[in-house]
Amino acid sequence: MPHPPIAVPEVGGDEITKIEATEKAFDTAAEDIADYDPETIVVISPHNTMYRDAFYIAKNDGGTGDLKRFNAPKPHVYYPYDTELADEIVRLCDEYGIPVVYSEEDSDELDHGTTVPLYFVNRRIPPVGGDTAAYKIVRIAPSLQGDDVLYDMGYLIERAIAHTGRRAVIIASGDLSHKLKEDGPYGYIKEGPEFDKAVTDVMKSGNLEDFTLIDEKVNDRSANCGYPGFVMLAGALQDYKVTSDLLSYEGPFGVGYGICIFDCENWYVRLARMSLETYIRTGRRLEKHMIQQFPDFLRREKAGVFVCIKKHGQLRGCIGTILPYYDTTFEETCELAISAGTGDPRFEAVTASELDELVYTVDVMGQPESATRDMLDEKRYGVIVTKGNRRGLLLPDLEGVDSVEEQLAISCSKGGISPLEDYDIERFTVERHT
Q1: What is the residue extent of each domain of the chain?
Q2: Buried-most residue among 93, 133, 140, 241 (CB within 10 A)?
């Protein structure tokens, strides 16, 4: 999404008639977001505090957004911050050596790069009580580092979303070239429209990694503010099958505004779904021509996997492995999806008539490590309890499990272990794909 304050009626007045396509696209994108009903919206904005060699993440309970500097003090909305998700992004950045400034500086007041897109979202998801957003946000500013670091940062944002199990939307907020017209605020240069065409071509294709193939000279001279956020978005979506919908592009004021929706289906979930559906309908595993559509990374890694299937919010089957049984995560996911749909002893096998009603979650297991009670966190870590040859396991962040004691009690019950016994505890992380 772009972020021109002039697009907001309280700022632009009659001028918004000159960007009707952008106005319509803002509303379409906002409606799409509302249909998804996100818990959290992550906004990548270049008008947050920016550092050359570090990413900025706002740290606070929340911040307020308005456009009073553009003579529009209303609407005035308070946005609570998703501190748990922000903490997890920072933790992953520390683990992988990506510099982050996690600061309360400038955290109280939202920048217009964040406020403008959220203004349109709020027309479809009305604030609670009129002045508090009905969702949480995470505010991030790109750094001025290379494409590889931007791409990796985007991926860690997505991993943090998976670790916390958030139903989230990512908005890459940024205008395209500011040099499209001689009579525009920044003049004209031929690289301006060249950049905008290159960016919108990538948006239309859905091959977001191609952002990094845009000519560096064209990028630098175009005077855009969106490119770093676009590369971060590409990194965030690398594990997904992306379907793009370029809603609009125009630049009547000399600045390029492009709005594009990327609907994402997680590759792990797509694999689980396709594996079970193929088996139920044909009695066979995936054939070679079906397998070729999946990315290579699924065949490079090896991990335990849990596949859980729900129907109308109720569990319909769940089977998993703590440690990998097959040679690749690809095989692990395929086989466990079939087992979850046909081999869970608690349920009858899934029938073909149910397939369109099923929702899948694929948890990729981290390596278990020995732990004590005070090292557990029911939201962040799964737990394994063992006594002799008896073992019970519970995944993290499950609905209705609100304490470590509940988590341990359920795990013991599943393993036939008395809570009064002296049992061993292990903890593990999962990457949750939904």
Answers
A1: 5-255, 266-365, 369-429
A2: 140
Distances (CA, A) of 241 to 45, 169, 342, 372, 434: 24, 16, 26, 39, 13
DSSP assigned state of 333: H
Give CA 331 to chain center in angstroms: 25
Q: Is 154 left (phi over 0), alpha (psi -120 to 50) or beta?
A: alpha
E strand or H helix at 266? strand 257-266
List of residues 6+ apart from 398 with CB closer than 8 A: 378
pLDDT in tens, 311-332: 999 999 999 998 899 999 999 9
Give tens-digit pLDDT for 67-94: 999 998 888 999 999 999 999 999 999 9
Query: How far is residue 26's CA from residue 100's CA, in Å, rounded to a whole number?
Result: 30
- C-alpha distances (whole Å) from 117 to each of 33, 185, 275, 417 are 11, 22, 38, 52
Local structure of 215: helix, strand or coil: coil
Q: What's the length of the chain?
A: 434
The span from the CA of 142 to the CA of 57, in Å, is 9
Bridge partners of 257, per DSSP, are 250
Residue 350 has pLDDT above 90, yes or no: yes
Say what the pTM is.
Answer: 0.81
Domain 5-255 has CATH 3.40.830.10: yes
Distance separating alpha carbons of residues 320 and 428, to the nearest angstrom? 14
Fold adopted by 369-429:
Dna Ligase; domain 1 (3.30.1490)
Pick the CATH number of 266-365 from 3.30.470.20, 3.30.700.20, 3.20.20.370, 3.40.50.2300: 3.30.700.20
